[in-house]
Write a structure and sequence with these properties.
It comes from Marivirga atlantica. The chain is an alpha/beta fold and 270 residues long. 44% of the residues lie in helices and 14% in strands.
């Protein structure tokens, strides 16, 4: 769970508002299930915010675009995150900053790192455990018109052994790449088990779409985050392009994450 409360359960007050909104929708919808614009706006106004979580495929992993409305607040968080990255820290400090403060939109902003999904609906899982030895720091599950796609994210150190003098990958990046390649091998051989893991998180009132039980490797994406922009040289960028093309693993530095967060704040959508 990302949050302190369980969004599979509505409070009595929320449930009352939810039922009234559903009743309104039932009365105002046309023969095709649609509604006039002003009726639709009224329907959304009637819904409690928690209903968006409650009705989603993964209620406790839902990324709420309603939390993206206050640009000033998000800019303040982006500055705090930038200041944190400019200090002497490890990846554990980054994870603590995001998880303890529920700043999940920082990682959610990775949907803007060159991906074309997540704008229909977006989910995030932290410490997503494939096995007792394979655990992704984060998993993003986002939807576009073609269905759901997945991004497994590995955070590494922002400062230690990132690249060599010639731009070749250092130990930190090599370790991260090896890790996600192990995940990919495991997923390819155990996709049915992965489906069972998702079953634990899903809304009990919903069924998993076929993307969750039919392996399509074109839907699987990986990110390894390490270092800062200054660590990337011409050779590093060549390796980055080749790694993305050969393995669908995107090598990113933490300044990329700051930039994607800025894009999220501007667009107000995943």
């Amino acid at each position: 769970m990302l949050f302190e409360r369980d969004y599979n359960i509505l409070t009595p007050e929320e449930l009352n508002r939810f039922n009234k909104a559903k009743e309104f929708y039932s009365k105002k919808k046309d023969n095709f299930g649609g509604m006039k614009g002003h009726h639709l706006m009224k329907y959304y106004e009637m819904l409690p915010r928690s209903a968006y979580y409650y009705e989603s495929l993964f209620p406790n992993n839902y990324l709420d675009i309603g939390l993206l409305k206050n640009a000033n607040s998000l800019e303040n968080i982006r500055q705090q995150f930038t200041d944190l990255l400019d200090s002497d820290i490890s990846e554990r400090d980054i994870l603590n900053f995001i998880n303890r403060n529920e700043h999940y939109y920082i990682i959610g902003s990775l949907y803007h790192a060159g991906y074309d999904f997540g704008h229909h609906i977006a989910f995030l899982f932290k410490e997503f455990e494939l096995t007792s030895t394979y655990k992704a720091d984060y998993l993003l599950v986002g939807k576009n018109s073609g269905g759901f796609n997945f991004i497994f994210v590995e955070l590494e150190n922002p400062y230690s052994n990132i690249t060599l003098n010639d731009g070749e990958l250092g130990e930190t990046f090599r370790k991260g790449v090896k890790q996600v390649k192990n995940w990919d091998d495991w997923i390819e051989g155990n996709f049915n088990t992965l489906r069972l893991i998702f079953q634990k998180y899903k809304n009990p009132r919903k069924e998993l779409p076929k993307e969750f039980y039919e392996l399509d490797k074109s839907r699987l994406n990986y990110i390894v985050l390490a270092g800062r922009r200054a660590n990337f040289k011409d050779k590093t960028y060549r390796i980055k392009r080749k790694t993305l093309k050969s393995s669908n693993i995107k090598l990113m530095h933490y300044d990329n994450l700051i930039d994607s967060f800025a894009t999220l704040i501007e667009t107000k959508n995943y």
